[in-house]
Design goal:
It is a single chain. By secondary structure, the protein is an alpha/beta fold. It folds into 2 domains: about 130 residues, Rossmann fold, CATH 3.40.50.1000; about 110 residues, no CATH class. It has 10 helices and 6 strands. A 6-stranded parallel sheet has the order 3-2-1-4-5-6. Helix 10 links the parallel strand 4 and strand 5. Helix 1 packs antiparallel against helix 5.
């Protein structure tokens, strides 16, 4: 069994947006409920203009991850990213503050608050730990996740799932990310399992489901109440982690 991490086992995007909104408390006059959109808009503009943008897309790195990742342990072709990111962070927060008519000198303070909030720990989704326990008691399990290595490994550690996993494949370390079949293949090679005998569980239809099917696997889509994009006999649907059945 292969498992995704973000928004499959832990809350990722929602938690990031909450931490972005929380930084609004540090500056009078910022609209709390829309501040996350302002910051993300500024971040995405710089993110997509970067020389690393093609790699970000291939590896599934999100702009808000760049606001707190150190990028330690990345694949060799991304080695310069660690020095670039400090400039990216500072300019993102300055642009966001200017966009709402605020003094950009507060950028460093807001950035530090966001980093601290993200590093405080991501909520584990209901039933996720039970799912990992049920699966690992019955068969080998690998985690296949897109993202910067330092923050993905921190999330795994904080969620307490690392000791249960037989393999961890992170796009930022390998240099390829979901939906590339190589991501799934790397995990299957470690587990010594053929694709037709494996199942991928994840919340992203394109990356987790379509990628797994193209790699010759079956899939379980974590829908979180969303309608199924396309019916397929090879894909089971579970509303959340607690609804995933053993294969």
């Amino acid at each position: 069994m292969l498992l995704d991490l973000d928004d499959t086992l832990i809350e990722e995007e929602g938690h990031a947006r909450t931490q972005l909104r929380n930084t609004a408390d540090l500056v009078d006059g910022i609209e709390h409920d829309t501040w996350d959109e302002v910051v993300i808009a500024s971040a995405r503009s710089l993110w997509h203009a970067s020389q690393y943008a093609p790699d970000f897309a291939k590896l599934g790195f999100a702009s808000w991850e760049g606001l707190w990742a150190t990028f330690e342990g990345v694949h060799p072709r991304l080695q310069g990213l660690a020095s670039w990111v400090s400039t990216y962070r500072a300019e993102t927060w300055r642009c966001a503050l200017r966009a709402v008519g605020q003094d950009p000198s507060a950028a460093e303070t807001l950035s530090e608050r966001y980093v601290a909030g993200q590093r405080s720990g991501h909520p584990v989704l209901p039933g996720a730990l039970e799912l990992v326990g049920r699966l690992t008691a019955a068969l080998p399990v690998a985690l296949v996740t897109n993202g910067p290595p330092d923050i993905q490994r921190l999330k795994i550690e904080q969620a307490g799932i690392g000791p249960h996993l037989s393999a961890v494949v992170i796009s930022g370390e390998t240099g390829f990310g979901k939906p590339d079949p190589a991501s799934f293949g790397a995990a299957l090679e470690i587990l010594d399992v053929a694709p037709e005998h494996a199942v991928m569980v994840g919340d992203n239809w394109e990356r987790d489901v379509t990628g797994a099917l193209e790699a010759g696997m079956r899939a379980v889509w974590i829908s979180h109440g969303r309608p199924v994009p396309s019916a397929d006999a090879r894909v089971a649907v579970a509303n959340g982690p607690r609804d995933v059945a053993l294969p």
